[in-house]
Amino acid sequence: MNNQKMRSDLARWFMIPLAVLAGALHAASAPPVKPNILLMVGDDIGWGDIGCYGSTQIQTPNIDRLAKEGLRFTSGYVTAALCSPSRAAMLTGRYQQRNSLENNRLAESKNAGLDLNLKTLADMLGGAGYATGLVGKWHLGVGENKEYTPTRRGFQEFFGFYSFAISYTPATLIRGEEPVTETRRSTVAFAEEACAFIDRHSDQPFFLEVAFNAAHTPLEGSRKDIVAAKFSAVTDPNFTNSPVQDAKRRNFCALVTEMDEEIGRIMGKLKAKGLDEKTLVIYISDNGGWISEGGNNGPLRGGKWGIYEGGQRVPFIWRWPGVLPAGTAYAEPVSTLDFMPTFAAMAGAVPPKDSDGLNVLPYLRGEKQGAPHGDLFWKLNGQCAIVREQWKAVRFNGRPGKPELYELNRDLGERKNVAGEKPELVDQLNKAWDLWNATLPPAFVPVKPNAVKSD
User: Fold this and answer.
1) 139 assigned to active site
2) Which CATH number among 3.40.720.10, 2.60.40.1120, 3.40.910.10, 3.30.565.10 corresponds to the domain 36-364?
3) Is 216 one of the annotated active-site residues of the chain?
4) Where are the alpha helices (DSSP H) in 273-300?
5) Following CA atoms 317, 27, 371, 288 in sequence, which dihedral angle do they give, to the nearest 10 degrees?
6) Model's pTM, two decimal places?
7) What are the C-alpha distances in Å from 111 to residues 123, 143, 166, 441, 444?
8) Residue 115, number of CB atoms within 10 A of its CB
9) Dihedral class, residue 115 (left if φ above 0, else alpha if ψ from -120 to 50, else beta)
10) What are the distances in angstroms from CA 414 to CA 214, 308, 309, 391, 408?
11) Catalytic, out of 83, 195, 253, 384
């Protein structure tokens, strides 16, 4: 064999594995087709209640591990500082003012709920071949009209409760559409049911929402978890310390501790089934902490029911090994409105055309640069806010008061109102909010059954 032929043969043999390796690297860089989606939702959990967001009071090693192995969003928003409208927007990709659930009271009406004309995440993903399940809290329609229940809104399986809160044990829950008596602590029951769902559907893509009632009232922490929670007196300025408030905080800490333990159970099941790298795992809170009921929003101002950051900037974590960067803080604003178009892209599904969100996956993977969103809007009980880049304008319709403007990248706690220094910017932001508000339909009013006339 001459030297030229030998060099040619060697080049050919080396090029084959290099080509294979290059192809493998390219394939690894692309998200897998139809990943599982596990969405875990805490209830009334604030920034100051999670270790990776700065809590030194509650130990949350399992949630912290999700952040260590994934993306921790520092500007992750829900659309309302209240549970029902927040969940409505999350499941439809539309501002709640467009889907008939601007406030909690409509979800608790006997004849109202999430607009029946809208597709949910479960509808969309079920249509793309996913097994769909909801474990835990619904709060998007109850009462006498079964059309508003989860099993009529795309969820093939449901175990949980319809209303805003339940006792942690014992409780009457719903399986499918039938009531059942549950003696397990609800947080434990929801985790065990989630694990059973994963067992049943480990051989097909699935979408599972685990909506914990922790740490919503009633604050019924277990003895074990009260001891486990590293409780100490609260020093956050949002709190007024008192024996009653300290007792609430102690139970709240216990409920978060218990939830974190059960999240560890669910993640253990994913690993045991070999689904770690095939599953996008998300942890969020439905809104910020309810300060008077034990919640802590850390450096953020305000909390549940309000318009300041403590009510709507929430713990927000995405973990997807091999697809999303690990141990990274993502600072650009994202919203739960983005779930619908992002999940659609991952599942090869077509999202509704009128979504208010966008597919953020290319931004999270560094394939697109800059901020995904332009303006984000809030409207709740006369409270109005808009966020554009680092600026946030706040006003209260129908109430006297000075305009408010905050530079969030320098003043996360919204302590310094700089509206007087930038009146033109305040005017621009308020006009943008007014234009958005003008696109909203009139507030939905449920019709009483006896007021409906037959043809």
Assistant:
1) yes
2) 3.40.720.10
3) no
4) none
5) -10
6) 0.89
7) 22, 7, 21, 19, 12
8) 18
9) beta
10) 28, 8, 8, 11, 7
11) 83
- DSSP string spanning 145-202? -GGGSGGGTT-SEEEEESSS---SSSEEEEETTEEEEE-S-HHHHHHHHHHHHHHHTT
pLDDT in tens, the chain (455 residues): 444 444 444 333 333 333 333 333 333 456 767 999 999 999 999 999 999 999 988 889 999 999 999 999 999 999 999 999 999 999 999 999 988 777 766 555 566 788 888 999 999 999 999 999 999 999 998 766 788 899 999 999 999 999 889 999 999 999 999 999 999 999 999 999 999 999 999 999 999 999 999 999 999 988 788 777 766 544 444 555 666 788 888 899 999 999 999 999 999 999 999 999 999 999 999 999 999 999 999 999 999 999 999 999 999 999 999 999 999 999 999 999 999 999 999 999 988 888 999 999 999 999 999 999 999 999 998 999 999 999 999 999 877 778 999 999 999 999 999 999 999 999 999 999 999 999 998 765 544 433 332 22
**Which residue in the list 26, 52, 139, 384 is annotated as catalytic?**
139
Pick the CATH number of 382-438 from 3.40.50.10320, 3.30.870.10, 3.30.2000.30, 3.30.1120.10: 3.30.1120.10
